[in-house]
Amino acid sequence: MTPDDDRTLERRRLAQETKDERKVWYFLAYFLFGIHIVAFVMIYAVRHAH
Asked: What is the pTM of this model?
C-alpha cells in the first residue's frame, strides 16, 4: 500500500465516522423530543381526568 492509499482510506474512514456520529445525534434528538411529547400528553391526561 502506498501512503496515498493510506491517506484515502483514513479520509474515507473519517467521513464515515462523521456520518455515523450525525446519525447518533439525530436519533438522540428524536428520542428526547418523543419523551417530551409523551410527558406532555400524560400531564394533560392526569390534569383532565375526572
From this structure: 0.63
